[in-house]
Amino acid sequence: MSAQMPRLLAFLVIGLVIGAGVAYAYTSSVMSTTYADLNTKISQLQSQINKLNQTVEYSIGVTLPLTGALTDVGVQWRTVVEMAFEDLNKEMQKYRMRVKFTPIIQDDKTTDTQALANVQTFHQAGIKVIIGPAASFQVKAIKSYVDDNKIVVLSPSSTAPTLAIPDDYIYRTVGSDAGQAKALAALVKSQGINKVIVFHRDDEYGVAFEDFFEREFSALGGASIGMKYDVTREDFASEVAQLSARARQEDVEGIVIITFDTDGVNILSHARKDSYLASLKWFSSEGIHGAMGLLGEDIATFIQKTNLLGTRPLFRENPLLHAFASQYKDKTGIDPPVFSANLYDAVMLAGWAVVRAGVYDGEAIRSALDEVAKNYYGVSGLTMFDENGDKLFQDYSVWTVKLVSGEYRYVDVGSYSGGVITLEE
């Protein structure tokens, strides 16, 4: 063995040692990097799992007439809203949807200015879906704002035909008064009445209803005379006196009133004292239905004497409606007022549209809403919308006030469907 061999072996041994050290260091570094990446990915996955397990909460604005001209029904509608949101959240749980909806309820005082203020407040809070407002003149006041800001609005009770406009952000879970005017005209004619005065609110709802009623009644061979009144007054004694004088002058056979609840009750409270007006037959749209003032002895007696009959949107043959009405009565002790079914369904449609959209965005929710409504059957019946965003299929009930078990109550006594009035015997 030469003298160089030990030195060569030493170098080889040293090289192996150094190589092993380098390999170990490299392997440790790689493993350390791999473990770090793996931990990062695990953390990211866990974060995603946590998000999936979290309940997403959405707020929906609700603007109700808790004071003002629609106070009576507005207060009752609050119970409907609470019932609807409770049931909507139960449906989310039933279908294992990690979603919860919360109503943000504001009083719009039955005014257009407050309705707009409420909508603006909702928008500033990031709310993209609103239930209400109730009256057509309020819907008209908010239309430009919600269209510009892509906020979906579902009104359960705005019925003015003038607001039947395609491609906007206003939806109505009730048919327009173009349909109800036809039903009311048919009802008046079925009672052998050929000439009437239509005493109506001077606003979007009253003016449009009177116009459409006049067309429909004329088509049936009747004569209709429009007479509007100022809705800003608190008492209508002088207007009722003018109505009485005009009725005598025109020799009419009946009076049709297009009112809300507080103004309607006031008008009837004066009319009952007028012997001539009490000798005529009276008719009404849905606007006064649900007003507690009609159930008092004095006005209820007047209703009986004049055989007052009214129309209101309602899908009668519906087990879901009967169950809803029973549940409402268990809670309140009274039957649900007009548009309660439409209000309930508005909440349900809004919630499911948000879920279907998958994003809280007005444009996406509007697109989803049309699809949801095509397949949703609610307490108001079929909920699909027409080209104007109004309820496509709408029947009507004929209502009055009767003495039942010793107390006066609202009672449905007939229906209008397919152009035919049917009254119970």
Q: How large is the radius of gyration?
A: 32 Å
Mean pLDDT: 91
Query: Main sheet?
Result: 8 strands, mixed
| Succession of helices and strands | HEHEHEHEEHEHEHEHEHEHHHEEEEE
The strand line-up of the biggest sheet is 7-6-8-9-10-13-14-15
Separation of the first and last Cα atoms = 131 Å
Strand percent estimate:
15-25%
CATH architecture of the largest domain: 3-Layer(aba) Sandwich
Can you identify the CATH superfamily of the largest domain?
A: Response regulator
Low-confidence stretches: 1-14
Coarse structural class? alpha/beta
Give the count of helical stretches. Answer: 12
CATH class bucket of the largest domain: Alpha Beta
The name of the CATH topology of the largest domain is Rossmann fold
User: Tally of extended strands?
Assistant: 15
What does this structure look like?
With 425 residues, this protein is an alpha/beta fold. It folds into two domains: 56-174 and 339-394, Response regulator (Rossmann fold); 178-313 and 399-423, 3-Layer(aba) Sandwich (Rossmann fold). It is built from twelve helices and 15 strands. It has helices spanning 4-53, 71-94, 112-124, 136-149, 177-190, 204-219, 237-250, 261-271, 297-306, 319-332, 340-357, 362-375; strands at residues 56-64, 99-107, 129-131, 152-155, 170-172, 195-201, 223-229, 254-258, 281-284, 309-313, 377-378, 381-382, 396-404, 407-417, 420-423. The strands form three sheets. Strands 7-6-8-9-10-13-14-15 form an eight-stranded mixed sheet, with helices on both faces. Strands 2-1-3-4-5 form a five-stranded parallel sheet, with helices on both faces. A two-stranded antiparallel sheet has the order 11-12. The radius of gyration is 32 Å and the shape is elongated.
